[in-house]
Amino acid sequence: MKFSSDSQLESIERYVFDHSSIEFITIPSNCIYIKGYEFANCKHLRSFKFQSNSKLRSIGMNSFSNSSIDNSGIPANVKTIGIEAFYSCLKLKSVEFIGQFLYIDRSAFDCSKNLFVASFPLANEIFIEKNSFNNIYNDFSIYTIKYAKIIII
User: Fold this and answer.
1) Which H or E run includes 103?
2) Distance from CA of residue 20 to its chain's centroid?
3) How far is residue 10's CA from residue 96's CA, in Å, rounded to a whole number?
4) What one-character DSSP code corresponds to residue 2?
5) pLDDT truncated to tens, each residue of the chain (153 aa)?
């Protein structure tokens, strides 16, 4: 699913695509919130992208849980990854966060067993709930800039 480049959609409501057969989506640049459960249990969803200049601020609870995405790039304006947002994404291998500040809520990537890398190439401060990355790949790595402050809460 692709929205037009001039879409005025500001939020994607809860459950809107839950359990659907959607395979890909491009999130419009004006979308500010993905509220929760929108793409949960979408077993065919392999790819989601963001239009350039994304204004997205938050990815809500269980937004992509149990989907089949394999990698993800999170736009710079995203400040919050909600509870279990990527829970049990069994095909997810890598995720890159482009922003300078980020809060990752509890169990955000729990049980995404093949996740082996989370990259924060521009982040100055990263707040991570202590069980955000439970039950994942044994050799999981986090990459940051040299002086990034990672705070486990």
Assistant:
1) strand 101-104
2) 19
3) 23
4) B
5) 888 888 899 999 899 999 999 999 999 999 999 999 999 999 999 999 999 999 999 999 999 999 999 999 999 999 999 999 999 999 999 999 999 999 999 999 999 999 999 999 999 999 999 899 999 988 999 999 999 999 999
